[in-house]
């Protein structure tokens, strides 16, 4: 039987609840779970002060209620599954290396910073700095998948070095800034200064995007590997057309102030 | 000559000789070649399976397993599934490298993917990538690492690793007919039926071989020589002849497969398809049972599947 955590008291300030993670709750009984420490602002308190605990974690945790102010859910997760019925707060799946998180609502900033594996699906929108490096850190997301069906804000994939970020809607500015490697697919439109300072990696958009001057146009073609990525995210429920899979893409390379080995592919048949 | 006691079964009027095909343990891989059209995928598949009839002279045996529709391939383009076999995993890895590099990477619009999940793998794309001269790049999707190698029509995409598994090489049937035309027709029918079986290939030209060989030779430099026991022109010359009177042509179909079961199934359908008027006997080649790890008895194959069909 899976563990169900229902929010009964909405936190006034962000609630830091990194204990809510299958790794930490597997096999723990209801009483012990309710007694686990969480931080309400700078107050140390018990998880049971905010959540009703029901069942036992057999690898799966279900959360319900407005969790928009609950942070660090699934931090450092390695196994299992978390299903979040509503919205969720910052730092979801921070540094996670395995398992799966599904959010039925929206997510706040810092989804899966410095993730190395596993999968996060967000059916709504998300905030800034998806799959990014923490400030001052040299490497962001290194592996795994972040699938967001809605829009996101700025600096998606900041300094990412591996893995896949797929955005069903639009992104803000600086998508893939400082990118080292990996793949970002944006089915909607991107903001400005995409790929700034990127060394390697791929940013794909289905729409025209403003390019910074240190990127150069090289050719228009149908990248074989992209067919696989687009087919894959279509299987995950994202809206990708046959024309987009079979179509041509304008290839830009940059950033020339770095290695000039990054690429931005823009759908040419829109 | 074959004694009457060696004939225990018949399919219609064709006698099934009570003997077995002696097959060998090999290593096998499946590669999926895709391209912009079926024709270009087939061009690469025909190239990579060229000069790959027998490990004796070609270092590997290869053939086309089947055509794949676009929704069956990793990149949603038309594809061809090819099986390649060699005597061991190391040798197979080398052959894959050579052949994917020379026959697939060179062919316009193609990509090349691993078609076999296995713990044992050979690094193929991971070596071919150096052709990119520093301009190559990789993509990781799930557990799959792909290499993108710049070529003059865009990019050649190839899997980093290809799976290798134990396989069976040298399953066979011999078709003994009254004349060349009749025997060839029976062989063609048999190969058509055998190609419907997944996991097998028929490595010889159009699936049929006429120059079956025996081990050794009177000439010391040769490790194999003409199988005089089945040469009609030597029927009364060779003391070992197994050509009955009235048989004037013998053709062999060799089968390599990813499992003994797949090879046996191919032999089964091949025997039934080849049993036609004018085909006196269906037999199989072996070396006395001392060399190969697999003994595929014709009667057992037929009996087991007849029993299975009846139940």
Structure description:
The complex is a heterodimer of chains A (270) and B (311). Helices cover 10% and strands 27% of the residues of chain A. With 270 residues, chain A is mostly beta strands. Chain A has a domain at 109-267. In chain A, the strands form 2 sheets. In chain A, strands 5-1-6-8-9-10-11-12-13-14-17-16-15 form a 13-stranded mixed β-sheet. In chain A, strands 4-3-2-7 form a 4-stranded mixed β-sheet, with no helix packed on it. With 311 residues, chain B is α+β, with helices and mostly antiparallel strands. Chain B folds into 2 domains: 4-19 and 167-310, Alpha-Beta Plaits; 27-163, 2-Layer Sandwich (Alpha-Beta Plaits). Chain B has helices spanning 38-48, 55-58, 89-104, 125-128, 180-194, 260-274, 298-310, and strands at residues 7-11, 14-17, 20-34, 61-68, 79-86, 111-114, 121-123, 137-141, 144-151, 154-159, 161-163, 165-177, 200-201, 213-215, 224-226, 249-257, 279-283, 294-297. In chain B, strands 1, 2, 3, 4, 5, 6, 8, 9, 10, 12, 13, 16, 17 and 18 form a 14-stranded mixed β-sheet that branches. In chain B, strands 7-11 form a two-stranded antiparallel ribbon. The model of chain B has no long low-confidence stretch (mean pLDDT 95).
For the secondary structure, the number of strands of chain A is: 17
Biggest sheet details of chain A: 13 strands, mixed
Strand content of chain B: 25-35%
* Overall average pLDDT of chain B: 95
- Label the structural class of chain B: alpha+beta
Low-pLDDT runs of 5+ residues of chain B are: none
Low-pLDDT segments, ≥5 res of chain A: none
Shape of chain A: elongated
Measured on Cα atoms, how large is the radius of gyration of chain A?
A: 19 Å
Helix content of chain B: 25-40%
- Can you give the mean pLDDT of chain A? 97
**CATH architecture classification of the largest domain in chain B:** 2-Layer Sandwich
